[in-house]
Amino acid sequence: MHAPIPTNNLYLAQARASTDSRHCMELYDKWAATYNAEVGDEAQNYVAPVLVAQAAMKFSLSNGAADSVILDAGCGTGLVGEALAVANAKAIDGIDLSPAMLGIARQTGVYRDLTQADMNRPIDKPDGTYDIVSCVGTFTQGHVGPDPALRELVRVTKTNGIVIATILDEIWVSGGFKAEVEKLKEEGLVNVVTDELIDYVKGHGDKAVLAILEKNPHP
Ligand SMILES: C[S@@+](CC[C@H](N)C(=O)[O-])C[C@H]1O[C@@H](n2cnc3c(N)ncnc32)[C@H](O)[C@@H]1O
């Protein structure tokens, strides 16, 4: 049995029930001003941003790429970017659906570039741009589905770079994420470094799959 999704936050519950990107965007636009206070790590033990940033920088160091160029996809208010900056990341770009969330992310001062984008559509970035692509809290109910998003994140990643994403455990299989990752692997596009379960919101028993996909040279 899975632990219930914490629904103590009305916006989160509504966002997870979104039926289209426009509705989801409107909710995050309303939520942006209070998001950090409500889901920031101190408020709800939302540990996923820090765990992903640490994994990303570990990869960066082991690759000798201290100057990694990073895309934070679904960056929200910038919790992942801030954790990456603390871990010494230098060039971080962010994309997100919600202009208000992007506005808060801009105030952190850690992003090089911030752009509005709907990840349920092709991403307007050239192939092979980033060493690391992070995506935290965005592969969840009512937000972004596996196709075309996972393939798009891999496309904008450099060869031998990584996509590091959290996918809420409840939808890893039922939402088609596991199948899409297997498809990308079968096509020779990626090597699956890990798809382990991690704490997502500590104390709520909320878990997510941490998927790390290494982009292969052209199959
Ligand atoms: C739970 S928040 C996570 C934000 C941030 N990564 C974090 O960990 O705090 C989910 C984010 O996904 C964004 N989002 C929802 N649907 C999206 C879409 N179709 N394309 C891009 N971003 C989307 C929302 O605007 C919101 O900022």
Indicate the topology.
Blueprint: H1 10-16, H2 21-39, H3 41-44, H4 48-62, E1 69-73, H5 79-86, E2 91-96, H6 99-108, E3 113-116, E4 130-139, H7 149-155, E5 157-168, H8 169-172, H9 177-186, E6 190-201, E7 206-215
Parallel strand pairs: 1-2, 1-4, 2-3, 4-5
Antiparallel strand pairs: 5-7, 6-7
Helix pairs in contact: 1-2, 2-6, 4-5
InterPro entries: Methyltransf_25, Methyltransf_Superfamily, SAM-dependent_MTases_sf
Organism: Penicillium arizonense
Pfam families: Methyltransf_25
- Main sheet strand line-up: 3-2-1-4-5-7-6
So how many helices?
9
Q: Indicate the structural class.
A: alpha/beta
Bound molecules: S-adenosylmethionine
* Backbone CA Rg: 16 Å
CATH architecture: 3-Layer(aba) Sandwich
Quaternary arrangement of the chains shown? single chain
CATH topology: Rossmann fold
Described by strand count, sense and barrel closure, the largest sheet is:
7 strands, mixed
What is the 3D form? globular
| Count of distinct strands | 7
Counting structural domains, the number is 1
- Sheet-strand content, in percent, reads 25-35%
Summed over residues and divided by their number, the pLDDT gives a mean of 91
Under CATH at level 1, the class stands as: Alpha Beta
State the end-to-end CA separation.
39 Å
Pattern of helices and strands: HHHHEHEHEEHEHHEE
The CATH homologous superfamily is called: Vaccinia Virus protein VP39
Considering DSSP H and I runs of 4 or more, what fraction of the residues is helical? 25-40%
Q: Unreliable stretches, pLDDT < 50, 5 or more residues?
A: 1-7
